[in-house]
Design a protein that fits this description.
Structural class of chain B: alpha/beta
Helix content of chain B: 25-40%
Oligomer: heterodimer
Radius of gyration of chain B: 24 Å
Helix content of chain A: 55-70%
Radius of gyration of chain A: 32 Å
Strand order of the largest sheet of chain B: 6-7-8-3-9-10
Distance between the termini of chain A: 21 Å
Strand content of chain A: under 5%
Order of helices and strands of chain B: EEEHEEEHHHEHEHEEHEEEHEHH
Distance between the termini of chain B: 47 Å
Amino acid sequence: MNKLWLIIQREYLTRVTKKSFIIATLITPLAMGVFFVLVAYIMSYEGSEELNIAVIDNAGVLRDKAFGDDNTTFYTTIKSPLDEAKELVKEGNYDGILVIPAIAKMEVRKYTSYYYSDASLGLDKRMDIQSKLKKHYRNYKIQELALDKKKMESVDVEIDFQPEPLDEDGVKESSMAAYVKAAIGGGLAFVMYMAVFIYGMMVMRSVSEEKTSRIVEVMISTVKPFQLMLGKIIGVGAVGLTQVTIWGILLPVITFIASFFIDPSASQPGASDMAAAGIDQQDIMYQFTQAMENLGDQNWLFIAPLFLIFFLGGYFLYASMFAAVGSAVGEDTGESQSLTIPITIPIVIAFYIMFVAIRAPQSALAVWASIFPLFSPIVMPARLAFDPPFWQVGLSIVLLIATVIFFVWLSGRIYRVGILMYGKKATFKELFKWVFYKA
Amino acid sequence: MEVLKVENITKSYSGKQAVRGVSFTIKEGAIFGLLGPNGAGKTSIIRIITTITAADEGSVYFCGNPLNERHPEQIGYLPEERGLYKKMKVGEHLLYLARLKGLSKSEAKEALDYWMKRFEIADWWKKKVEELSKGMQQKIQFISTVIHKPKLLILDEPFSGLDPINTNLIKSEIRRLRDEGTTIIFSTHRMEQVEEICEEIALISNGKKILSGHVDEIKERFKENNFEVEMDSTDSLDISGFGNIISQDGKRFIFHLAEGKNSSDLLLHILNQGRQVKSFREILPTLNEVFIKQVKIDNPELAAANEA
């Protein structure tokens, strides 16, 4: 026990005190923060060139009102005929001419406007003009057809979906809940997926390094191979928990700080577009705060400890397999690849099932995959926010623990032979034989 | 007292017999040579003694008790294939290995101070292992093997990769440890080192012990009754009736003494011829010769292949 503890300490401390670890742990969330700010900036980037557009309103849809300038585009309604306007463009007074042809028929839905210019119009600008035209046409038609504007607008209905419990005192959920839960599920499953790969591979590399540097022979004359393997898996697992925890704390903090750098008015591509589409800025803010509230309302006391169990279970399960592979291969990385692929397949399949699990958490696929121990470490965390039945979680944990014990034992059997085996090509058949070797 | 008693151990790996019924005992304070060509089964035997593997049959006793998993703490093992954690600092590394051997932190520090001073490497404490030269790393490796004052020290080719200065350093350390009561198993296929260091040997070939005993006794056993005499001149020598001359190199004659004849009588016979003898000695076989001969007898195929 004492020796195992010494091994765990070494494995943990040598990694955590490494400069590269400290940098990766601190820089990664920071880099992600910078990345988000950058993406937000790029997405909100609007063409900076100024455009002066002459508008010839033959249809009269504008009713002498302004077309609607924005920061970089200015519209001037002119009365001149097209030919004269074209001259004005050539002289450089305008960049282009927007012609709204006279309306021949009121009862059609499709109209065409023309834009005269030698310079082509950017996609953003074009969509902006189209949506503005649409609004002008709409207002014009409401008036011309003598429609009641209020009645007209009431036709475009919006449906909010409100889940209600059967009992009055049951837990009331907001309409956002399903999305928030799916986001939590996806997020947790993603963390699992990454952790299994990153830290599992770390174990594998470290084992094969010990083998090729031949320190392993010195080590196992003092400690049991199983202690050495277990110590490494636990030590690296502790490194993983440390890193994930630090990221879990830093990431929200940095996102919060980063959000100050993003100008909310410019953040969404064309806030005016949304206004045009009837989406209210305030509405978005409301939904956002509701989502945040929902996030806080989740049963974290249920989710967090269970996630920890599945995190550890999944990590031990796959890390032990990676350790076995690491012990079997030496310097030859190609060899390790052919052995790791079969291990990664269940992880990747589980990751895809996770997408089903967050959309349909009670579906048969999601339920059974979250119980099957090779998938459960990734699929069950995806379902945790959806209040899965206790028996399913319980069964899943029991099966997972049993499987972990089995695989750690199995990997230990392979490991103890593998670390002392040189020059033998490692195949699955060979690994299988090692399991039955006498000590 | 017998520190180690190995009784009729066998070990096979996936059908191939690596050790076939080997027995030997090692007395306290002895330097025991475990010899044999590559692949003879030396490492397999050592792995059984260090509890890395278990024997299929037979038993091993450590200081009179059946070998158990607490015993490795009293054994220091320097494997032939050895290495260190390259990224660790020398001091931390040695401390770690010492503590795995069961020393407390303060005991380990104390022992470490002693050895680092002894090897004049006290200022390496904060150096990373990878910054050291190969020879320096070997010193660290040696310290890590003996830091916990093992009762039994197993050295598998300890001098491979060492320069002459470090070889002498380690050699004198081995002798000093022996004088302090450490029992040592010295495994090698380099015979000149064995003659220099070992008292008792066991020769392993093909997983079997084909020869064992005290070095002098073995030489005695395998001597061929050959003598070398150095004369005052190159004039031919008459030893008729005593044996036959094998070769002559200047004033040196090598001859074989016939069965039942006495070397003193022969010397008298020569002296009676009125000639001066500068030196007269019996030629004992080197361990190397014994080794090659015995391995060849045991391995006819190998011998044939070597001659071809």
